[in-house]
Write a sequence for this structure.
C-alpha cells in the first residue's frame, strides 16, 4: 500500500534584529529625541531624556529603562514626548533582552503620527519578530499582514507571517499566503525561498488536500526537490490521475528517481507488458535488479518471470518494427504511427520514435493525441533536442494529469 511520506515541518525561523539594524534603530531614536525640524520635546524633559540617552550610549540598559519608565505617561507630557520616550525605551528594552517591555513600548509608537513611514515599517517588523519569539502568533500575524498590505514586507516578514498562521493551526491561511508569496516571486522570474515551499506543502498536507499538495510539490520539484518530493508526487498523481495515466506517472517517477521499492518496478513492468511494450518492461526489471531492489523471494520470483516474458516478447516483436513502420506511412489514421512510435521509444530508438510520433500527430485520428504529444516530448528529450522537447511539452493540453506530467518533464529540458 502506497503512503504519503510527510517530510515537511514548520521549522521555526528565528529572525532576530541584526547588530546593524540595532545600530540604525539607536540612530533613529536619537534623531527622534532631537529632530532638526518638526515637533520638539518639552523643555522640562530635555535633561532627563539626555540622561537616558547617555545611559544608552554607555550600554547601561537598566539605567536607561528606569529613567524612561519614570518619564512615561506623565500628565504634563505632550504626545510627542511620549512618542520619543517609548521609542527609546523600546530600543533599550530590546538591548536588555526585555522583549515584553520592548513590545509594550513600541506598540505605543508604531502607528504614531510622529513616525515616518520608514520608521513605522522598521518598528512593525521588529514587533512582528518579537511577537513571534514570544509565541504571540496572533499578534505576529497582525503586524505581518499590515506590512504586506503596505508593500513593505521582505522575505523574513512573509516567512514569519506564514509560520505564525501555521503555528495557530490555521493551515488554510498559511497555505494561501504561501501560495500567493510563491506566485509573487515567480512573476518577475525570482526563485521562491525553500522554506516558503516547505511551508506551502506542509500546510496542504495538514489539510489532507491532495490537489493543494500536488500544486505545492510541483513547485518544490521545480526549485528545491527533497528526497521525498518525487515519491510523494508519484503517489498523489496515482490517486488523481486515473488508471489510464498510471504508466505515464511511473515513467516520470522513474526518470526523476522517485521509484524506491522493488514492488514499484514490478508493477510498472506489468503495466508495460499489458500495453504491449516488452522492451520497456525488460529495461524496468533490469534497472530494479541493478539497484538491488528485489530482496525477498516473492519479489525475486515475480521479477524473474516478468523479465523472461518481456525478453521473449521483445525477441518476437522488435524485428518486425521497421516493417510495421514502413507500412504505417501509407495509412490515413495516425493511431498506428503513434503505437509504433511508442514501441520505438520503449526500445530506446528515440530518433525513429520522434519521426513516427510527428507523422502520426500530423495525420490525426489518434485515440489519445495529448498522450502521444507527451511521449513525443520525451522522445525528443532523450534524442538530445531539449528545445524541441520543451516546446512539445508546453503544447500538451486537456487532461490535467498529462499537463502536470508535461510541466514536470520540462524540468529535464533546462
Amino acid at each position: 500500500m502506497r503512503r504519503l511520506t510527510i517530510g515537511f515541518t514548520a521549522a521555526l525561523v528565528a529572525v532576530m534584529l541584526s547588530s546593524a539594524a540595532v545600530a540604525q534603530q539607536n540612530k533613529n531614536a536619537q534623531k527622534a529625541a532631537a529632530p532638526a525640524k518638526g515637533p520638539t520635546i518639552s523643555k522640562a524633559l530635555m535633561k532627563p531624556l539626555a540622561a537616558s540617552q547617555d545611559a544608552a550610549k554607555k550600554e547601561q540598559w537598566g539605567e536607561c529603562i528606569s529613567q524612561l519608565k519614570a518619564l512615561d505617561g506623565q500628565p504634563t507630557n505632550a504626545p510627542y514626548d511620549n512618542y520619543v520616550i517609548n521609542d527609546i525605551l523600546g530600543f533599550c528594552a530590546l538591548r536588555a533582552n526585555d522583549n515584553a517591555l520592548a513590545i509594550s513600548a513600541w506598540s505605543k509608537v508604531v502607528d504614531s503620527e510622529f513616525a515616518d513611514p520608514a520608521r513605522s515599517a522598521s518598528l512593525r517588523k521588529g514587533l512582528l519578530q518579537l511577537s513571534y519569539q514570544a509565541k504571540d502568533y496572533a499578534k505576529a500575524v497582525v503586524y505581518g499582514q499590515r506590512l504586506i498590505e503596505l508593500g513593505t514586507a521582505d522575505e523574513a516578514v512573509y516567512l514569519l507571517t506564514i509560520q505564525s498562521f501555521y503555528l495557530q493551526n490555521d493551515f488554510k491561511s498559511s497555505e494561501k499566503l504561501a501560495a500567493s508569496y510563491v506566485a509573487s516571486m515567480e512573476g518577475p522570474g525570482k526563485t521562491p525561498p525553500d522554506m516558503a515551499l516547505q511551508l506551502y506543502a506542509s500546510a496542504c498536507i495538514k489539510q489532507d488536500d491532495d490537489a493543494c499538495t500536488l500544486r505545492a510539490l510541483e513547485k518544490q520539484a521545480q526549485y528545491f526537490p527533497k528526497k521525498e518530493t518525487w515519491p510523494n508526487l508519484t503517489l498523489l498523481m496515482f490517486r488523481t490521475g486515473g488508471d489510464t495515466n498510471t504508466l505515464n506517472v511511473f515513467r516520470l517517477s522513474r526518470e526523476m528517481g522517485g521509484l524506491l521499492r522493488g514492488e514499484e518496478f514490478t508493477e510498472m513492468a506489468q503495466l508495460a507488458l499489458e500495453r504491449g511494450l516488452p522492451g520497456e518492461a525488460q529495461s524496468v526489471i533490469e534497472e530494479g535488479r541493478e539497484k538491488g531492489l528485489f530482496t525477498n523471494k516473492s519479489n525475486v520470483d515475480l521479477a524473474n518471470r516478468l523479465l523472461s516474458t518481456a525478453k521473449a516478447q521483445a525477441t518476437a516483436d522488435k524485428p518486425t518494427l521497421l516493417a510495421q513502420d514502413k507500412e504505417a506511412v501509407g495509412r490515413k489514421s495516425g493511431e498506428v504511427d503513434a503505437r509504433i512510435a511508442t514501441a520505438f521509444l520503449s526500445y530506446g530508438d528515440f530518433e525513429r520514435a520522434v519521426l513516427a510520433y510527428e507523422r502520426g500527430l500530423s495525420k490525426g485520428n489518434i485515440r489519445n493525441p495529448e498522450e502521444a504529444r507527451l511521449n513525443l516530448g520525451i522522445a525528443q528529450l532523450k534524442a538530445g533536442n531539449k528545445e524541441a522537447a520543451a516546446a512539445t511539452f508546453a503544447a500538451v493540453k486537456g487532461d490535467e494529469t498529462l499537463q502536470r506530467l508535461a510541466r514536470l518533464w520540462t524540468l529535464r529540458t533546462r
